[in-house]
Design brief:
about 350 residues, alpha/beta, six-stranded mixed β-sheet, about 15% strand, disordered N terminus
């Protein structure tokens, strides 16, 4: 038997949790002095620490002090490669400039259970703050607890009582896009929405509907895509077969690329036959054929601003809404006469 194998195993946080009769997550909360741990639970955790002779490793010391100099970022696998990459780059740039690392958790779908597990994992790592870029419409009590305990900023996504919100008014984005088409003289303005489970998709659709109703135009039944160019292409094939449609508000640039291709293949010109306006203003939008008219979202800037908001602490505002702006290019024009 070698010397290393003869050494007794050092007690772990899991051992402390077992002796105290709580979860490892509760142990980590107690060690960093969380106000959400009851006095009785805190006493049991500390007694177990003393009984086992548990010694904090570097991660545990960060948890107990509440300073790991790490920010947690939660992203969704689907929903737009460009926006996800830009948000990540913005968070990492601002965090790095402030001396923080970034720990990323990516979830496969809009599921509260997946969100809970990702947030709990980041909490166990002792992150000093959270940026959530996942658009959950409803959240659980556990998510509420974690985002109240750890400073949190959400980017146009999940709303929790403890989180600060950063992003553009998505309803205003829908109204701005639709009003542009109305001002050009269009009255048959259809909408290709994002997935209904996304809060941004619902808000953009609502903005489109409200703008049409205010102008005395009956909103047609919206079509629905999944944010991908392929889903835009499929819905664009439907639009191409409706001759009275002269304009379409598409909920994302990537879907709009698919719509434009479908219309072109069916012999309908953009913008001569059908005007297209969308949302995001990703880098490729200006190089589309024709260049795409779209409501701008500065994903990189949002990611960086989220870190700034986190580091402001208690002095930060609860909600920061960025004014939507429209980049007018070649995909929109007045409807053809005659």
């Amino acid at each position: 038997m070698n010397e290393d194998s003869a050494k007794p195993r050092q007690p772990s946080m899991a051992d402390v949790a077992r002796i105290a009769g709580v979860s490892a997550q509760t142990v980590s909360r107690a060690l960093r002095g969380s106000p959400h741990v009851t006095p009785d639970t805190n006493r049991r955790v500390l007694a177990a620490v003393e009984q086992l002779g548990y010694r904090f490793n570097s991660a545990a010391r960060a948890l107990s002090s509440g300073r790991s100099h790490t920010i947690g970022l939660v992203l969704l696998e689907s929903g737009g490669y460009y926006s996800r990459s830009a948000v990540t780059a913005g968070v990492e740039s601002a965090a790095g400039a402030a001396g923080y690392a970034v720990s990323i958790a990516t979830i496969a779908g809009l599921d509260a259970g997946l969100m809970e597990r990702s947030l709990a994992k980041l909490a166990d790592q002792g992150v000093d703050g959270l940026v959530i870029a996942v658009p959950l419409i409803s959240v659980t009590q556990k998510i509420e607890d974690l985002t109240r305990e750890i400073p949190t900023v959400t980017l146009d996504g999940s709303r929790t009582r403890g989180a600060r919100v950063l992003g553009i008014d998505q309803g205003e984005a829908g109204r701005l896009a639709t009003q542009h088409l109305l001002d050009l003289g269009h009255r048959q303005i259809w909408h290709i929405a994002g997935p209904d489970e996304w809060i941004e998709a619902r808000q953009r659709r609502q903005g489109w509907q409200e703008c049409l109703v205010a102008a005395g135009v009956e909103p047609p039944t919206p079509l629905e895509g999944d944010w991908s160019p392929d889903s835009g292409y499929r819905q664009g094939q439907i639009i191409a077969m409706i001759p009275e449609v002269t304009a379409v508000f598409v909920a994302s640039d990537e879907m709009a690329f698919g719509v434009i291709r479908a219309l072109r293949e069916r012999g309908r010109s953009v913008p001569d036959d059908v005007s297209i306006v969308s949302v995001d203003d990703i880098a490729l939008a200006a190089y589309c054929a024709p260049p795409l008219t779209t409501v701008r979202q500065d994903f990189y800037g949002y990611g960086a601003a989220a870190v700034t908001l986190l580091l402001q602490g208690e002095a930060a505002v609860e909600e920061s809404v960025v004014t939507a702006s429209l980049s007018v290019r070649g995909s929109t024009a007045p409807p053809r006469q005659g």
